[in-house]
Specification:
80 residues; 0% strand
Length: 80
């Protein structure tokens, strides 16, 4: 999946600032947050069932994979 350019904090701050551009942006940001939580739960369940991982291992793996995917997809300039 590669190495994300930004930290999670930088991506969260960038998305939060982006959401301030108007009502539509705020709604999209809210939907990203809702869907992220659903994806994390479903991916945890998938890893547990498909790979017979423990609950802790499947949750940890899902968190890491989704975090990397999010940070790879959204890229923001780094502060100087």
């Amino acid at each position: 999946m590669g190495t994300p350019y930004n930290s999670r904090e930088e991506v969260d701050a960038g998305l939060s600032a982006w959401a301030e551009n108007g009502k539509t942006y705020r709604a999209a940001y809210a939907e990203i947050q809702v869907q992220y939580k659903i994806a994390e739960k479903e991916l945890t369940s998938y890893y547990k069932k498909r790979f017979n991982m423990s609950k802790i291992e499947s949750r940890s793996t899902a968190k890491n994979v989704l975090d990397t995917a999010l940070r790879t997809h959204y890229v923001f300039p780094k502060p100087r």
